[in-house]
């Protein structure tokens, strides 16, 4: 019995019976439905194929629903904005006719309140880093730390800022109900900050008389640092979601934090998932690099 399991995300290239069977025969155990992008109609069709394969005995897939989580994004642009290092521009938190072609809109209304002068704002997963120079009622003035080209609706991260976002949205709750109705095995709960977040999902499951779904807490922002022990104890599994986490914490600390999560999960008898950029070179190369093999 192989103790290490392989999780793969469902997307169009593998969303058919032949490919799913091929994946299972190559050791994939768990299929992830990413509800940052998935919809109910398409997911039901995919579930029908997976359930058919499972019932036939050809596969024994677990299925996981990954919630979207609250997010901060820039606004729509008529064309891409091109920034050069040291360029200064404004990030608005209210829609305004004063927004120039270089400026951006951000849908986080507490930006001026939560961010400090000289702190960095990360746009589009480190594609653009900016430093806050000045704060006003409707905007903050920032300076670009690097060259970048930015398009519409890009992610915005505020490292080391405790956000006033709700940790779970109306959509997340609807998606969890979808998972219950369709007998998913796991819910990967995004943006978990503390044990109370996990307890809230458990209450929702209990209210629906569901005692079969396990909760995987995704560790992907800096607030977990103070609350990791209680999160691990309250969760069934945890996931080190490295893509979002490396935006929030210094990249040199990421391996240390990952090892801490793995150690604590094992200490508490919990399974831990390491996600993102595992064997990235396998996309184009048949063999791992020396570093990957270690």
What can you tell me about this protein's structure?
- This protein has helices at 17-25, 40-56, 111-114, 170-181, 195-207, 224-234, 242-248, 254-267, 290-293, and strands at 6-9, 28-34, 62-66, 81-83, 88-92, 104-105, 120-123, 128-135, 139-144, 148-150, 156-157, 186-189, 214-219, 237-241, 271-275.
- It has 9 helices and 15 strands.
- The strands form 3 sheets. The protein has a 7-stranded parallel beta sheet with strand order 1-2-3-12-13-14-15.
- The chain is globular and about 60 Å long.
- It is 31% helix and 23% strand.
- It starts with 5 loop residues before the first strand and ends with a helix.
- The chain is α/β, with parallel strands linked by helices and 294 residues long.
Q: What is the percent of helical residues?
A: 25-40%
**SSE arrangement, N to C:** EHEHEEEEHEEEEEHEHEHEHHEH
Shape: globular
**pLDDT < 50 runs, ≥5 residues:** none
Strand order in space, largest sheet: 1-2-3-12-13-14-15
Task: Provide mean pLDDT, rounded.
Answer: 93
Figure out the total of helices. 9
The end-to-end span amounts to 22 Å
Q: What does the radius of gyration come to?
A: 21 Å
What summary fits the major beta sheet?
7 strands, parallel
Query: Which percent range describes the beta-strand content?
Result: 15-25%
The total count of strands amounts to 15
**Class by SSE composition:** alpha/beta
Oligomer: single chain
